[in-house]
UniProtKB/TrEMBL annotation:
EC identifiers of the protein: 2.7.1.6
Domain GHMP kinase N-terminal as annotated: residue spans: 98-183
Protein name: Galactokinase
Keyword Nucleotide-binding: yes
Keyword list, A-Z: ATP-binding, Carbohydrate metabolism, Galactose metabolism, Kinase, Nucleotide-binding, Transferase
PROSITE patterns in the record: GALACTOKINASE, GHMP_KINASES_ATP
Similarity section: Belongs to the GHMP kinase family. GalK subfamily.
Cleavable signal peptide: none
Parts forming coiled coils: none
InterPro entries for the chain: Galactokinase, Galactokinase_CS, GalKase_N, GHMP_kinase_C_dom, GHMP_kinase_C_sf, GHMP_kinase_N_dom, GHMP_knse_ATP-bd_CS, Mevalonate/galactokinase
Length: 387
């Protein structure tokens, strides 16, 4: 039994245990790793994520008593919720509950009627690791509840509903990238996404390349971290420059208009402008299998995140340095996700991928928190699973 079969079996069994019958349908949405374009989605910029072969799976069946019932199998014994989908939907205490409630609220706000349902949810996207377990959860729940209710949404519509839930019910001021990657990616490709227009282009990942994700083991909670502060700093910088979003600045405008701007806000803006400039270059290198260019660009991205955006940690910088030295000219590595912990991503020649694991093992000899690495396959976006 492979990874997905085990997860499907767990979700079906959890549904049977909770509700005393089998589900009628299964839906899945993947996590994602962002290859370049960090902290620019909420600045209306360009990003380049790809979905990974780790996912959230939802089992669903008809509801009773006019309510949506949920059992969250990864959240411990007794992790259940029940609420009426019509009328005012109140926020709950747990983040996972608010993802479900928020998805229903925003689906209804878009003019669709969500039908009563019973769902069970489980996943294998590591929680708090920067691989978008929350977006995977929200998109999977949204797809399941919508299709159960006879609502068929385009990927961008589904992503916006899941993002609304995370912004307004969960309280994390994330951009649209994570939900779009989970909803819209194509297997074997990264997703070049314009976060202002939501236009997308699939970027085929050269078959000679491997994508390794290194989980640092350092966890963070986005809603209690400096994530929301970084977004506020970017918005303040945009106001200084008189632009709608930092996406509207180029390097020349960044320098020309910096007079009187606080140094911290200038550094935040400099990261965003330089990071957007790396996205198309990484996309070209990814398609061509140009590992030297990838190594240089990913290293530049990590330095910018660590210095200008200040979302790295000494342990993450050390881990990135060890992996980068091990890869040499065979690839590159950088922090991925919001930062303050979480994961690094390495893109390398497939033949050099074992060097990543060897470097992580050397790091672990001295680390207080152990890291681990996996090679992920670029996966497809959210979909129904045949039963």
């Amino acid at each position: 039994m492979n990874r997905r079969d085990r997860l499907i079996s767990r979700v079906i069994e959890g549904y049977r245990t909770a509700y005393g019958e089998a589900p009628i349908a299964l839906f899945a949405a993947p996590g994602r790793v962002n290859l370049i374009g960090e902290h620019v989605d909420y600045n209306d910029g360009l990003v380049l994520p790809c979905a990974i072969d780790r996912e959230t799976i939802v089992a669903i069946g008809p509801g009773e008593g006019g309510v949506v019932e949920t059992v969250a199998l990864d959240m411990g014994a007794g992790a259940r919720d029940s609420f009426a989908p019509d009328g005012m939907i109140a926020r709950a205490d747990a983040e996972w509950q608010n993802h479900v409630r928020g998805v229903v609220h925003f689906t209804q706000a878009d003019g669709h009627d969500v039908q009563p349902a019973r769902i069970a949810v489980a996943g294998d996207v590591p929680i708090g690791a920067g691989l978008s377990s929350s977006a995977s959860f929200g998109v999977a729940v949204g797809l399941a509840l919508c299709e159960h209710s006879g609502i068929y949404l385009a990927p961008d519509q589904l992503a916006l509903i899941a993002q609304g839930a995370e912004n307004d019910f969960v309280g994390c001021a994330c951009g649209i990238m994570d939900q779009m990657a989970s909803a819209a990616c194509i297997e074997g490709s990264a997703l070049l996404l314009d976060c202002r227009s939501l236009e997308t282009r699939a970027v085929a990942i050269h078959p000679s390349l491997a994508i390794s994700v290194i989980d640092s083991g350092i966890r963070r909670q986005l809603t209690t971290s400096a994530f929301n502060q970084r977004r506020a700093e970017c918005e303040a910088a945009a106001r200084h420059y008189g632009v709608t979003a930092l996406r509207d600045l180029d390097p020349a405008g960044l320098e020309a208009g910096r007079g009187g701007l606080d140094e911290t806000l200038f550094a935040r803006a400099r990261h965003v402008v330089s990071e957007i400039g790396r996205v198309e270059a990484v996309a070209a290198a990814l398609a061509a299998g140009d590992v030297r260019a990838l190594g240089r660009l990913l290293a530049e991205g990590h330095r910018s995140l660590a210095t200008d955006f200040a979302v790295s940690l000494p342990a993450l910088d050390r881990l990135a340095g060890i992996v980068g030295d091990a890869l040499g000219e065979a690839g590159g590595v950088r922090l991925t996700g919001a930062g303050f912990g979480g994961c690094l991503v390495a893109v390398s020649d497939a033949a050099a991928a074992p060097r990543v694991a060897e470097a992580v093992a050397r790091y672990n000899n001295e680390a207080e928190v152990l890291a681990r690495t996996d090679v992920f396959r670029p996966a497809a976006g959210a979909a129904r699973i045949a039963m």
